[in-house]
UniProtKB/TrEMBL annotation:
Substrate binds at R53, G54, A55, R90, Q202, N253, K254. Pathway: Amino-acid biosynthesis; L-methionine biosynthesis via salvage pathway; L-methionine from S-methyl-5-thio-alpha-D-ribose 1-phosphate: step 1/6. SUPFAM superfamilies: NagB/RpiA/CoA transferase-like. Keywords: Amino-acid biosynthesis, Isomerase, Methionine biosynthesis. Gene3D superfamilies: translation initiation factor eif-2b, domain 1 (1.20.120.420), Translation initiation factor eif-2b, domain 2 (3.40.50.10470). Belongs to the EIF-2B alpha/beta/delta subunits family. MtnA subfamily. One of its GO terms (biological process) is L-methionine salvage from methylthioadenosine. PANTHER family: METHYLTHIORIBOSE-1-PHOSPHATE ISOMERASE. It comes from Roseicella aquatilis. It comes from the Bacteria. This is Methylthioribose-1-phosphate isomerase. The record marks C163 as: Transition state stabilizer. Catalyzes the interconversion of methylthioribose-1-phosphate (MTR-1-P) into methylthioribulose-1-phosphate (MTRu-1-P). Also catalyzes the interconversion of 5-deoxyribose 1-phosphate and 5-deoxyribulose 1-phosphate. Part of a bifunctional DHAP-shunt salvage pathway for SAM by-products.
Length: 363
């Protein structure tokens, strides 16, 4: 995707051929900072601090973290150590474990002298696979928006999304936003309701930033406005991303997604979830009971960071002094509330039969 005419991916190897570059997403949309990562500790910190975030992207960045670690020590103990360490940075997004398992499987039986080159090649393959996967997700989601546009010729197709599931959350294109970008590029009049997505405001900060840079019409709304918009006929479809999908079709996504699905069901609106193959956890059946939900720092709820009128970035407390805060980062939307899943292989019901129909080789 492009920022002010310059093409970017969300992670890439620098011109030196070994260090890794990322966009610092904690600084967006106020400033564009490009960080250079030189070892696995910096990669782990970038993931924990959400300088990189989004399930597919943290998997790709972690893969490069393995390559960086092996530059210093390509032994088997080093490989096992870095895979374990990076795997502990965030618990909910299954793409992280998927990418690290893939790196370990590719490298474990190689001689130490071959591991560094193979690690960079495998990390690049993971990144390239994600970009192409997300492009295909857009192709399979685009007909949903075309159908709506055909039913209301000359009118705008209104999409509601939650959190950020665009190219900043992936290597390129995005998941939930990929069909929207393709619809916009195809000339379909599309408008996006962008949930602010408290407490970190990934919608207001990141999704709005992305859509604006691409020229897609959008409006930022408070998280609790979605049901009102649906009741008044101002939403045609909901499309969200996900950090983990169970084999039965339950969906873990940013906190607040479950409430949007409930509102969509009550108003008879389609609620679609876009995901790559790396987000499916075939080992888990019941998402509510089995998916670990990350609990993040209280300060994300009690404090807000923004730009002041004179251009300074400031963090202020918005909660009453002395009041504790809880901060579950994700919730689980049961499959029964999901209209369907959009994958790189096509669309399917949110069910085990639907997923296995697209992925017959799955365990």
């Amino acid at each position: 995707m492009k920022i002010d005419g310059t093409p970017y991916r969300s992670v890439w190897v620098d011109a030196d051929g070994w260090s890794v570059r990322i966009l610092d997403q904690t600084k967006l949309p106020w400033q564009l900072d490009i960080l250079r990562l030189v070892d696995e500790r910096q990669v782990a910190q970038a993931i924990r601090s959400m300088q990189v975030r989004g399930a597919p992207l943290i998997g790709a960045v972690a893969a490069y973290g393995v390559a960086l670690a092996l530059r210093a020590d390509a032994g088997t103990d080093s490989l096992d150590r870095v895979v374990t360490m990076l795997g502990e940075t965030r618990p909910t997004a299954i793409n992280l474990a998927w990418a690290l398992d893939r790196m370990r499987a590719r490298l474990h039986n190689l001689p130490a002298g071959e591991r560094v080159a193979a690690a960079y090649a495998e990390a690049q393959a993971i990144a390239d696979d994600d970009a192409e996967t997300c492009r295909r997700i857009g192709e399979h989601g685009l007909p949903l928006l075309r159908e709506i546009a055909a039913r209301k010729p000359g009118e705008t197709v209104n999409v509601l999304t939650h959190c950020n599931a665009g190219w900043l959350a992936t290597v390129d294109y995005g998941t939930a936003l990929s069909p929207i970008y393709q619809a916009h590029d195809a000339g379909i009049p599309v408008h996006v309701w962008v949930d602010e997505t408290r407490p970190r405001n990934q919608g207001a900060a990141l999704t709005a930033f992305e859509l604006g840079k691409h020229g897609v019409r959008h409006t930022v709304v408070a998280d609790n406005a979605g049901g009102h918009l649906m009741q008044h006929g101002q939403v045609d479809i909901c499309i969200v991303g996900t950090d983990r999908v169970t084999r039965r079709g339950d969906v873990a996504n940013k906190i607040g997604t479950y409430l949007k699905a409930l509102a969509a069901r009550d108003n008879g609106l389609p609620f679609w979830v876009a995901l790559p193959h790396s987000t499916i956890d075939w080992r888990v059946a019941d998402g509510v009971a089995e998916i670990p939900i990350e609990e993040r720092a209280e300060a994300e709820v009690t404090d807000l960071t923004g730009r002041t009128a004179d251009g300074r970035l400031e963090t202020v407390r918005v909660a009453a002094e002395g009041s504790p805060a809880a901060n579950p980062a994700f919730d689980v939307t049961p499959a029964r509330l999901v209209t369907g899943l959009i994958t790189e292989r096509g669309r399917c019901d949110a069910s085990e039969a639907g997923l296995r129909g697209l992925y017959p080789e799955a365990p």
